[in-house]
Specification:
By secondary structure, this protein is of the alpha/beta class. It has six helices and nine strands. It has a single domain (14-148, 156-203), classed as 3-Layer(aba) Sandwich (Rossmann fold).
Length: 214
Amino acid sequence: MVFPAGPTTRKGSLGSWTGRRVSAWWSAGSAGSLPAITAILSALPASFPLPILILQHHRRSPGWLAQILDRTTPLAVHFATDGEVLKAGEVLVAPPDRHLLVNPDATVTLSQAERVRFARPSADLLFESAARSYGPRVIAVVLSGTGRDGADGARAVKEHGGILIVQDETTSQFFGMPGAAIDATDPDFILQFVLPLDDIGPTLQSLTEGPTSP
């Protein structure tokens, strides 16, 4: 499919890349990412054709996160359960203190394995499992947050031919995670997009659309 171009501050060009069908998108962030997640979800229609997995770091129990997000979007939002099957138009949120992984059979696994970069859930583990399972059909989104979690996962997405979207520094409350993801990937990686927050939702929608020309 051909992705139509839009206004961005980016390393790639939506209008210049012809890619393969995308199967899902995964989002990760920590400090400052809740407003970003809600803004993106609110921009997506009820007909959004992909499953969505969301991971956010919390200092306190995030038992309220799925409920808050469910009020911001027409998409169904709930905490992921072990063995659950990914479904188009559903948003799965990583539960408190559990790693969230995806499998090639379109199911998810929850794990209490050791923390990665002091984090559980870990963006690195989520992105790496997605890259191994779905290769070029993955869209990974790194939002505002501190630390470097997600950098190794961003590199894995790149190495498997997936698409990486990173929130830009201007609209990120904290640029640690987005900056680390950018630093971890080659500057000539054409499927990496560094976008202001308001452009991420429309870009995700563009990435799921069919071809605009034969």
